[in-house]
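Usage

Read records sequentially. Each one opens with the input sequence:
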Amino acid sequence: MASVDVAGGDAGERYPWVTIEAWAKGGEAERIGAVGEALAAEAQQIEERLRVLHRDLTFVQRVLALTPGRPFMERLLALSRQVRYSGASDERLLASLIAEAQSLDDALYVLWHPEGEEHHALRACLFHELLLRGADPDKLVPHATQRPDFRPFHWSGLSWLPARLSEMEGPDLRAWLPSRRYQGGASGTVPTMKSPTPVDVTARRAGAAHRIWEATPAHLADLIGRPAKDGRWCDHEARVFVLDEPVSPENLPGVVTALPLDCLQGLGERDRFEGEACTLDSVWLTLFMTASAGGFGSAGVHGAWGRFSAWLSLAGLCGAEYPEASASDVEELARACTWYRFEADTEWFHNDLDDYGIVALSPDGRRIAVLAATDTD
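and closes with the structure output:
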């Protein structure tokens, strides 16, 4: 028979539910209330104890992951089996720490552990974390071996990603990756514009003459805004527009000032609006850092899922159909687009911490996609 324990009683009394039902029929509200109060107090104590245990377990795993050497990897894998379902294990973070601190040989021990199925999430993330830190893909996936992020009959977004870093992902990436210690460490931030140029009144008025329609289906908004959502930035806006006449890359900045964006609401003709043409490399890096490093007060989703998030956003911005399109299809479409980044003096853009707007103009000049993000309330 189910029963209710009374915490703190003289002898830890236990009352069957039928007994409590009898008290109710006898009008003993105070007695029932006392049992409830005792249970609530005990539950609060247990929750606090669990919170402390989770915090300490998380720290122990962090220390094991950041200390170089095979014995530490062996103990980490053994421990992860015990804490996997406790809420104290974060495979995304652990994979990132292992890739940062361990030699390639010791990281490969984790990647190809004989009991790999038990550590599938950790291994899947570690594969991409090692790629991001410059590991040779041929050493990560021996000949005729399946990728660690592939699992039969289970769909994983990570397995959609390319098994090698694309050209846009490679340049100077390691300089942007986090460096952690046992307690704390830098996690990185998004890159800033190099040489922004103001958009003058004449260009803004010319841009406003274009006829523009919104065409933002929900799934595209989700794709484009994925990095800001994953990184838990304070706010973001993801929109797609079509135009009746093609826009040239030279005239794009003026057209952007006239888009009916929430982030540009209230922008006057002489209010600051500046931007610059940017490379696909810098766009990908901005999206990646937004998701992987996270916003203020957030740890982000780390490297593996930050990579996935950046590719999803890129697919939405350039108009690729995910997941039908392959990663190579996405990159090909993205390279055909014109890319522009901007900032503005509006209420939406706080111009504090990290704010940005990214624009993709399709090759035919008739489609504009925008992701704006702010990390300030």
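Summary fields computed downstream for this record:
- Confidence is low (pLDDT under 50) at residues 6-11.
- Residues 29-66 form the longest helix (38 residues).
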